[in-house]
Every structure is written in C-alpha cells, then in structure tokens.
Amino acid sequence: MTKTKPLAALVALAMLAPLGACSKSTTAEGKPSNADTTLASAIGDAPKLSTVSSALSQAGLAGVFDGPGSYTVLAPEDAAFAKLGTEEKTLTDPAHRAELVALLRGHILPGHVSPDAIKKAIAAKKGPVSMRTLADGEVTFSESGGKLFVTGADGSKAQVDGAPIVASNGVVLPLDGLVKKPLPAPAG
After folding, report:
1. pLDDT tens-digit profile of 157-184?
2. For the chain, what is the domain count?
3. Can you say how many angstroms the Cα of residue 75 is from the centroid of all Cα atoms in its chain?
C-alpha cells in the first residue's frame, strides 16, 4: 500500500464528517429524521432488514446501536442474505459467531455519513472515496448513473438500495448485496 492511500482516506473522511453532520436532521427526501429512534430500533423496524437485525442481535452488536456512538450501517437487505443460501444458516449458527461478527463489522462505519455527503465527497474528489470499517477493512464508494455503489476490500460490490434510514445516533444505508464475503465455514 502506498503512503498516499492512507492520506487520501483521511482527507476523504475529513471531507465526509462535516457534510454528514449537516444532513443529520433530515432524510434524503427532506423529511425530518426520527431523533428519538436509535439505529437498533430503526433497523429492527425496517421491513427489508429483518435478517441483518437478527444477525446483529445474535452477534451481540445490537446493543452498540442503542448507545450514544454515531455509526453508518451498510445494511444488506434480506434478499442479499438469501443469496448466501446455506452459508447464511452457517453464519447464524452459534458456533460461527466470530465469523458473523467479522462480517457485520465489515458493514459498519464510524460516524454518521449520508448518501448526499458521500456523493458530494465523490464530486469534490472527482472519483471514488474510501472509508475504514469497524473491521479495520476498507470500503470504497463510487457513483455511476446517479446510483451510489459500495465496494469492499475483497471486491464485493453492492448498490445503496433506497432511501437512508436516519436515526438519533447514525444512519442506515440499505444495500442490495454484501460488501464483505463471509469466510468459508470450517470443514467438519
């Protein structure tokens, strides 16, 4: 990795942070956000996010989203998890909790970052912007045809699918796929 890559990530993060703060009180449609709903409640109430909501609970991460910290959750929709087939069932097996936690942490960013803020950062940089996940991996945001895409370090790519869900302590970006592939289940 070159020395400019971490610097570019820091610059992108610095650009995104103030922009995200500006959009915290409204949704993408200009509607007021629900300031008294936490991320955990917002994810639990979203009809297409029941699988990620259950996974967060099983992994012991749901409680984090009831606290004061601010996060952006890249939340794969139920259909994205369904595409995993038997791998989804393996992930939710208590014996594979560590793999589930690693997968989910790869979908969580520190701070509140709205799609509008990401698009502004992409326009300002004239190209993709990257951010670090809580799994210490990197995701890269790009825009094509007015649509926002997220690519994980392993090449997994998903589109932001629908309006963001704004909560008191962050934002949920529904995705049509996963941006971190699950680790293969151990044989046996």
Report:
1. 999 999 999 999 999 999 999 998 776 5
2. 1
3. 5
